[in-house]
Amino acid sequence: MNIRCGIDLGGTKIEIIALNENDEQIYQKRIPTPQGNYQKTLNDIKDLVVALEVTLNQSVSVGIGTPGAISQKTGYLKNSNSTCLNGRAILQDLEKLLSRQIRISNDANCFTLSEACDGAAKNASNVFGVIIGTGTGAGIVINQQILTGANHISGEWGHNPLPWPSPSEMMETQCYCGKQGCIETFLSGPGLEADYTRHTQKKKNSKDIVIAAEKGDKECDISMQRYEDRMARALAHVINILDPEIIVLGGGMSNVERLYKNLSQRCLAYVFSDQLLTKIIPAKFGDASGVRGAARLWPIANSQQPTANK
């Protein structure tokens, strides 16, 4: 039996699953991510893989999705918001620890790969997958192949400036990357919360803002309208360049139902076209897509399944 193991190395949890040759999930476990402890993170990943193999009584391939990407220049991880991983030879260290070849890709790439293969964007040839949660990441999959890019940064949509900004928008937000006005600072959950506070001098978490807007709270609804318009501008830029068949949304903010009612019409105001055929839809597998995509970094034996290493 050809078993593929996927690991989602997140900021708060590490999840491991196993898929059989029919892409059926046959194993799953989650543990908290050791905060700021690189070596314990590696050891925990090893322990999870070993436990899986003992349970299934066979060896498995290992694919890992993580924030950031492997630098082509240094071979170390870069751009991860789990900062203890940055500047570390995580791929080499894990391969040594587990005594096998491992494939690593950005978590948004894994999310998009999963949704393009058997998720909400199944059979689409050109898919843009967006994760909007505590951060804002994205991946591109063409014909069920991750588009990695020469610099291993394809899909780093959140660290481009918000398109068509007002003067105040450019000055309102400081991103951890060192620049102002990044898309992530507006469209992440914390970005919505910060916008609400700037305009009301009150504090609410993103979930409460969404719920209050649904119940008719005017201030929260106006915040959501600003959020939708910014999302539309940001996605319109992608549509103008990539022209995807489907945009799949994942992460906590993807659960906001009004986005799927309003975004297409809002995007049309910014897209360089007289119609918008791109579908904007929620992920089929939700927060499980990333780990499913990580498993898919390895092909089924004797198949033409997509692979990647980023």
List the topology elements:
Elements: E1 4-9, E2 13-19, E3 25-32, H1 38-56, E4 61-66, E5 69-70, E6 77-78, H2 90-98, E7 102-106, H3 107-118, E8 126-132, E9 136-142, E10 145-146, H4 167-172, H5 184-187, H6 189-200, H7 206-214, H8 218-242, E11 246-250, H9 258-268, E12 279-282, H10 289-295
Parallel strand pairs: 1-4, 4-7, 8-11, 11-12
Antiparallel strand pairs: 1-2, 2-3, 5-6, 8-9, 9-10
List keywords for this structure.
alpha/beta; five-stranded mixed β-sheet; globular; 310 residues; 2 domains; Nucleotidyltransferase, domain 5
CATH top level of the largest domain? Alpha Beta
Coarse structural class: alpha/beta
For the record, the count of structural domains works out to 2
Extract low-pLDDT stretches.
302-310
Please give the alpha-carbon distance between the first and last residues: 27 Å
**How many E strands?**
12
Individual helix count: 10
Mean pLDDT: 92
Principal-axes shape call = globular
Describe the structure.
The radius of gyration is 20 Å and the shape is globular. The chain has two domains: 4-110 and 288-295, Nucleotidyltransferase, domain 5 (2-Layer Sandwich); 121-283, ATPase, nucleotide binding domain (Nucleotidyltransferase, domain 5), CATH 3.30.420.40. It starts with a strand and ends in a 15-residue tail after the last helix. The chain is built from ten helices and twelve strands. It is of the alpha/beta class. Strands 3-2-1-4-7 form a five-stranded mixed β-sheet. The protein has a five-stranded mixed β-sheet with strand order 10-9-8-11-12, sandwiched between helices. It has a two-stranded antiparallel ribbon with strand order 5-6. 37% of the residues lie in helices and 20% in strands.
